[in-house]
Write a structure and sequence with these properties.
Chains A, B: One of its GO terms (biological process) is thiamine diphosphate biosynthetic process. Chains A, B: Keywords: ATP-binding, Cytoplasm, Nucleotide-binding, RNA-binding, Thiamine biosynthesis, Transferase, tRNA-binding. Chains A, B: It comes from Thermococcus aciditolerans. Two copies of one chain form a homodimer. The first copy, chain A, is an alpha/beta fold. Chain A folds into two domains: about 170 residues, 2-Layer Sandwich (VC0802-like); about 190 residues, HUPs (Rossmann fold), CATH 3.40.50.620. In chain A, strands 1, 2, 3, 4, 5, 6, 7, 8 and 9 form a nine-stranded mixed β-sheet that branches. In chain A, strands 12-11-10-13-14 form a five-stranded parallel β-sheet, with helices on both faces. In chain A, helix 9 links the parallel strand 13 and strand 14. Chain A starts with a strand and ends in a 9-residue tail after the last helix.
């Protein structure tokens, strides 16, 4: 029935024509990648007057997949027909009836919204709306209500064609992946880090997922989380990089010896960022994403984040820093990582009973020197 | 009518009793500060069984003000009475009637939700619900509907008192300001930076607002923005710090001379962070907040943010980095800064026509040396 998907990507704040072109072409590539990798046949993907048209007879399936491509604001499975009033009327009626059945309404309220994107069609938009509305009213039990409608029939007219649709599915927005370079995302297996990575991906960043090994159970969990996340990664999806840290025993032993176990977590995070820093440089990534949210646990303090930030010259992006746990959980559920994040993981035997809450950089430096015999950051890991 | 406000602050993830106590005491202080500074009389603020009670005859007014205190999840203006079924019934009916009038409903659906916080009351919660529900049904045209209700009558029982209410106003959540230390917030006069500062405040951070002077019109605007933001700042509201940068002319001249005007914006932001860094150290602040959102304008790139981040050892917090403009605007409108941010400001005469999009750190260093004769960050500003 449908033969095209209308993809709308909004203004996205890139005003120059050149940037817009470039943006469009990346978005089109990501759309193609999404459809190809999900096995959805399509004839053509083309940019037209600020929207993208995906010609396909699998419009419904395509909409499902494209709902996970960033940079898209809304999607409509539509019928492309020649722009003749008669055809428009009949198509609109057909879609209207279908939607009416779907909603199970006896006398739906509706409105018609028409837009002439190019101006060759002889009737103006309000006239199209009136004509199509009258036609539907004649044929179907219904009433027009411009504000409280159950069904909105959309008609977009361009270049001699009409696009008729009754659904507009709102999507994630954001920017197409590949427009904003790369960052390394540290994935721990918890609820927060996948959400942080997701939000960066949403802003067009290609994410290089890195997991610092804790044990097989946690690794398996992180693999599943990344497999879920990469469903949003059309345009750039890397393989999970797993780092087995060699220095852990040495650090733990030394901290225990000095009775400074309370610094274990800060040390551990510092080393994670050191590894992320090294991988970022190898891959040409321009930053590191972390799932920190301020004050979520007692040890997520400005002081501890200061220490951890010293592990790299790269900016650390913390998109969750201003969010409450509730908001983070809501996103995690929406993107399908929440369930996975609550799967069992390896117990970490070395978490101290009372982790340091406001760690001191000076003290950390001293501990670092005691463990490694040199200044923090001098040492490669 | 109301004589108390029930303040709920949820679990907030601080599980140790000690942390909770400390958190409660800061929240109570912030509540007191809010009420005193808005001239709302109250008799007492006390913590009881995981909630805070504000005894006041100005409950409605208090709720308005407390809606801007972070750390609060929900608020109910309530009637505190002795915990006797008879009294509970009559109070519930009175509030029910009042709410019914307010909603203008003839036959409202309602439910009663009771909780025994302490257990001395002889009836269990479901019994209280049944009794109070029956009483209301007898006296008032209405029906019980546990799922689709127009009115919910709440009854909380503790220590021989009953708290009856019909409104539960959801609030910002977050953490009480003062629990998380201080950061410097750069306020430019645009839409984004106040939202970024707001989100950090919401997570319990005291914000030190800094504006780098551009002209009187912009300064006036930023003052108004900060006056709006500080309405959320009970618990720590600083005065706006205005920095008049002395080095601007020198930078502009030199960049022009070298035909590198395209670096003006990056240079300007770098210097802003240098100033923020100096002020942070003076005030003992542990980070800098900025309104950056990735890719919002062509020059908000990972590369340019990398350069700017080199201006400080402190972590730069960018709570908007994962948000779309639309989401930022929505928050700005909600907190009342949007209108102010769109007021006219001083034109900036030195914005280059084509700002650098992917700035290079090496090139920036060279330019910096050419302007100041030394390495970036060596120089104090």
């Amino acid at each position: 029935m449908f033969n095209v998907v209308i993809v709308r990507y909004g203004e996205i704040g890139t005003k120059s024509r050149q940037t817009r072109r470039w943006f469009e072409s990346i978005l089109m590539n990501n759309i193609r990648e999404a459809l190809v990798s999900e096995g959805i046949e399509f004839k053509k993907v083309e940019a037209k007057h600020g929207r993208i048209l995906v010609k396909t007879n699998k419009a419904r399936e395509a909409v499902d997949v494209l709902g996970r491509v960033f940079g898209i604001v809304s999607l409509s499975p539509a019928m492309e027909i020649d722009a003749e009033l008669d055809k428009i009327n009949r198509t609109a009626l057909k879609l209207f009836r279908r939607k009416k059945r779907e909603l199970g309404l006896e006398r739906p309220r509706f409105r018609v919204t028409a837009r002439r994107i190019t101006k060759e069609f002889p009737l103006k938009s309000p006239e199209v709306q009136a004509k199509v509305g009258e036609y539907i009213l004649e044929k179907e039990e219904s009433e027009v209500d411009l504000h409280n409608y159950d069904i909105e029939v959309g008609v977009e007219l361009m270049e001699g064609k009409a696009y008729v649709f009754v659904d507009k599915i709102y999507s994630w927005g954001g920017l197409p992946i590949g427009t904003q370079g790369k960052v390394v995302a540290l994935l721990s297996g918890g609820i927060d880090s996948p959400v942080a990575a997701f939000l960066m991906m949403k802003r067009g960043v290609e994410v290089i997922p890195v997991h610092i090994y804790m044990g097989e159970k946690t690794l398996e969990k992180v693999r599943r989380i990344w497999n879920q996340l990469r469903r949003y990664g059309y345009g750039g999806k890397g393989e999970l990089i797993v780092v087995k840290p060699k220095e852990r025993e040495r650090i733990l032993e030394k901290l225990r010896e000095m009775k400074k176990e309370k610094y274990t977590c800060v040390f551990c995070k510092y080393m994670m960022v050191r590894h992320a820093d090294r991988i970022a440089r190898e891959f040409g990534a321009k930053g590191i994403v972390m799932g920190d949210s301020l004050g979520q646990v007692a040890s997520q303090t400005l002081e501890n984040m200061y220490i951890v930030s010293q592990a790299t010259d790269l900016p650390i992006y913390r998109p969750l820093v201003g969010l409450d746990k509730e908001e983070i959980v809501r996103i995690a559920k929406e993107i399908g990582t929440f369930e996975l994040s609550t799967l069992p993981e390896d117990e970490i035997p070395f978490i101290p009973k009372h982790p340091v809450i406001r760690g001191s950089w000076e003290e950390f430096r001293k501990l670092y020197r005691a463990v490694f015999g040199e200044e923090p950051r001098k040492r490669q890991c």
